[in-house]
Specification:
Layout lengths: L28 H11 L1 H23 L18 E2 L11 E2 L10 H37 L1 H16 L2 H11 L4 H12 L1 H14 L3 H8 L4 H12 L1 H24 L11 H10 L6 H28 L6
Antiparallel strand pairs: 1-2
Length: 317
């Protein structure tokens, strides 16, 4: 075997200019998470769909020439892109883009206004669950001991009661309306968030920064609000994103069985219930709300998965 001549090698020595350099640019945790979220095309597309859907539900019913409760009895169950022949709109060349329902109401307007009602109920219910859950879970996780045991037993009792039974009973007792639906969903929907925040608080309360805050005389409310919850914010955001489609489905289910928003207020559940009555003759009346619910729930679920991947530091490359 031939030997390599030592003269072909040279001593490089230390490189003082580059030995202190960083192999990777220094960025914050949130900036790094956002960069990874942007690279996730599926999550980014779902985020764009959700934003467009929210904007459409907020604006399109306002600029539509038709009212969601306005009836055109001479134009019942019209198909897509059917012209409006009502004498009130003579000469204006208006079109029912998604047709009309059994009472001649414009499906385009009712679909987006129903989406506004469904999304408003879902966001409001999840927001109430968020507030109750982070306070309850934060207090339980930080104090621990007997306080934690008592508070968690209460959560287990609430979880032991069938969820739909509680919601249905509240919807039957309270007057129908969007506020009642929010209260009914929030009554039993906060337990998951409370358990999640409690677990994060238990994992963080023994960290050095919490010990330092306690040594400096910080109050428990300040430690929970300024130290524990901000460090659990990524997990909370993911849970909120995944809770919205569940709230949308609950609203649609209750409205479908007649325990949701009162008639004639539209929602995707009411549109699905009305479409199911004429499904064999006019199947598109059911497809429209079903597709709207499916796209919304799928977008929120895929966005939640993307956020979970983006906020997980173990997935960093």
């Amino acid at each position: 075997m031939d030997k390599i001549d030592k003269g072909r090698f040279g001593w490089v020595g230390p490189d003082p200019e580059h030995r202190e350099g960083l192999s990777r640019p220094s960025i914050t945790y949130w900036r790094d998470a956002m960069n990874r979220l942007v690279k996730n095309r599926v999550a980014l597309v779902c985020l764009i769909i959700i934003v467009l859907l929210i904007i459409s539900c907020a604006i399109l019913p306002l600029i539509s020439p038709f009212n969601s409760r306005e009836q055109h009895l001479a134009e019942t169950n019209q198909s897509f892109f059917s012209p409006c022949t009502d004498s009130r709109y003579e000469g204006q060349n208006h079109i029912h883009i998604l047709g009309t329902d059994k009472l001649g109401r414009d499906m385009w307007t009712r679909t987006f206004e129903g989406g506004r009602v469904s999304l408003m109920i879902a966001f409001a219910a999840v927001f109430v669950n968020l507030i109750i859950g982070i306070i309850y879970g934060g207090v339980s996780g930080y104090y621990g001991g007997a306080v934690d045991n008592i508070m968690m037993r209460i959560v287990e009792v609430v979880n032991g009661i069938p969820y739909l039974i509680v919601v249905v009973l509240l919807m039957m007792i309270l007057p129908p309306g969007t506020f009642t639906m929010v209260i009914a969903y929030a009554t039993v929907g906060w337990t998951g968030m409370a358990r999640l925040v409690r677990g994060q608080a238990l994992a963080l309360k023994n960290q050095e920064f919490v010990t330092a805050a306690e040594a400096m005389g910080a109050k428990p409310s300040r430690i929970i609000g300024r130290h524990l919850l901000p460090n659990a914010l990524s997990v909370i955001i993911i849970n909120v994103t995944l809770a919205v489609p569940s709230a949308i489905f609950t609203e649609a289910f209750l409205s479908y069985i007649g325990l949701g928003v009162p008639v004639p207020m539209p929602s995707w559940g009411i549109l699905a219930q009305e479409g199911s009555q004429v499904f064999q003759v006019y199947p598109e009346k059911l497809w429209i709300p079903a597709i709207a619910i499916s796209i919304t729930m799928l977008s929120f679920n895929l966005l939640g998965d993307g956020l979970r991947d983006a906020f997980d530091p173990r997935l960093r490359r």
